[in-house]
UniProtKB/TrEMBL annotation:
GO terms for biological process: carbohydrate metabolic process. Keywords: Signal. This is Alginate lyase 2 domain-containing protein. It comes from Formosa algae. The keyword tRNA-binding does not apply. Residues 54-295 form the Alginate lyase domain. SUPFAM superfamilies: Concanavalin A-like lectins/glucanases (SSF49899). Gene3D superfamilies: 2.60.120.200. Pfam families: Alginate_lyase2. The lineage of its organism: Bacteria, Pseudomonadati, Bacteroidota, Flavobacteriia, Flavobacteriales. Residues 1-21 form the signal peptide. GO terms for molecular function: hydrolase activity, hydrolyzing O-glycosyl compounds.
Amino acid sequence: MTLKKIIYPFLLITIIISQLACNSTGTDSEVTDDNADIPVDEIEDTIVTNSNINWENWYLSVPINSGSGKATSIGYEDIINDRLTAEESKYFYENEDGSYTMWTQFTGYTTSGLSELGDKYCRTELREYWKGNQDTDDNWSMTTGVHILETTLQVDFVEGNGRTIVAQIHGKASDGITGDPATVKIRWNSGTIQIDHYTKPDNDEAWTSNYDEKLDFGQVDNEIFTFKIKIENGKLFCALSCEEKGIDIDYTEIYDYVGNGYVHENYFKTGNYYGWNDDYEKAAQVVLYKVKTEHSL
C-alpha cells in the first residue's frame, strides 16, 4: 500500500470533522437552551407537570410518622418537583404514562394520630383545597352552587377484606356544628363500586355512619373507571363509566342533603383509604390517572 493511499483517507476525515465543528459553533446553526439564564437552584421549579391534575388544589397524606405521631402531609410543591423522600415514594410515585400509584398498608399512623391494630385506618389519599389556598379552612358549602369531583382510577389489588375507599365528600367540623362526617364514601369493595352515604340522624344527633346507607353502583373489577360526584341544589348525584365493562351510568340522584338539614362545609378526597387494620402486612394499591374538580357559586 502506498503512502498516498494511507494519508488521503485520514485527511478527508479530518476535513469533515473540522467542518462539523465549525457548523456547531457558527451563527447559522445556533443551539439555544431554554434554561440557560435560569439559576441552577431554580431550574427544578420549571418542571412541566401532569396536566390531568391541578396540584395546587390538593395535598397528599401518607401513613408515615410526621414526627408528631400523625400521618405525613405532603404539599404540591414537593410532588411536582419530585422531592418526596425514599420512604414517601414507596407510597406514592409517578408512572411512565403520567399516572400515579397510591400504595398503602396499615402502619398505625393516621391523620388523627397513632392507632393500634383494629382501631382506625391508614391511607394514601389526596385532600382538596378547592380555592388552591393550601388552607384546611378552605372548604365549600352544599347550600350554594354546583360542586363536582371527577376521578379516574384503577384498583390493582386490595388484600385482606377487599375494601378501599377511592373518593369522598368529607364534612368539616365548625363552630356550632357537631361532628366531622365522612359524608359520602365511594368504596371499591371486591370489584364493586359502592356508594356509602350518611343520611339524616335522629333527634338532631351528629351526622355519623350510624345512619349510613349503601348502594352498589357497578362492577368494575380491576379495570380503569371514572367516578363522578356532583352536589347541585343541595342534592348528591353520582355517575360511573368503565369502558372495559360497558358501564356508562349518567348522573343519578342519590340523596337530598340540604333538604334534610345538612349544614357542614366540605372538601373532596380521592385515593386509597384502605379498610384494613388487622395486621401490618397486607396492602392495597390504586392507580390515579386523572382528577379534577369544578365549583360554581
